[in-house]
Amino acid sequence: MTTASASSTPAPPVAVPVPVHQRVAELAAAHIGSWQEGYLQDRSSAVAALARLRRGAGREAGEMPDLWNLIDTDPLHTPAAGARSLSEQELVRAENALHAALTLWAFHQQSRGTPMHRRHTRERPGGLGAAVRRLMPADGIDEPVRKRLVRAGTAPDLVALAQRLRDIVALLRRDDIPLDYALLAGQLYVWQWPDGPAAVRRRWGRSFHEQRRPRPASDENTTPDTDENSISDTDKDAS
């Protein structure tokens, strides 16, 4: 009787590290998903959470002690099995991005009966550029609105960026145009690294122009497009 050699035993799968910007996006989606569902069902705890969150829109993360026990960042400090621990710099930037995205969503969702956070797909682009383009007429460009996006793209730091995004979100809220806030959270993390602003501006610009393209019929049954959230060439996770 023969026995299988040790070399024939399949090797265990190797865990692929999840980029930090994706971990931030996933955590933002988990938070908002729970709060948004509760808010739309008029649960008192979710309504209260949203009221607390929206007061922090456009402000620094550490400036609002009331939010410290509301925004749970434990998953960033205690990674899943196989994931590496984040450096102090990565943690600070991840927490800043999470704070900015969650508070902007709360401002957007206020008094709205439909979800203002909607995940990006190929058929329904959810990036910031696409959302801004939807504010404009189909046959032209609203120059003042376009300039708001350009101004956000040239913000000198994250606080200024969050303040300028708040102005854009006010317009989206007025017209009931949703945004993918998980995607935005990941982009706000990338923004804080060297070369990050340029990479994020390119994503916003591409999203803005792609919103105008007609979608081919073959796209109707495709799976969600994750390329919009892929910024691995500029994500400084290993820094």
UniProtKB/TrEMBL annotation:
<protein>
    <submittedName>
        <fullName>Type I-E CRISPR-associated protein Cse2/CasB</fullName>
    </submittedName>
</protein>
<dbReference type="Pfam" id="PF09485">
    <property type="entry name" value="CRISPR_Cse2"/>
</dbReference>
<feature type="compositionally biased region" description="Basic and acidic residues">
    <location>
        <begin position="207"/>
        <end position="218"/>
    </location>
</feature>
<dbReference type="InterPro" id="IPR038287">
    <property type="entry name" value="Cse2_sf"/>
</dbReference>
<dbReference type="InterPro" id="IPR013382">
    <property type="entry name" value="CRISPR-assoc_prot_Cse2"/>
</dbReference>
<feature type="region of interest" description="Disordered">
    <location>
        <begin position="206"/>
        <end position="239"/>
    </location>
</feature>
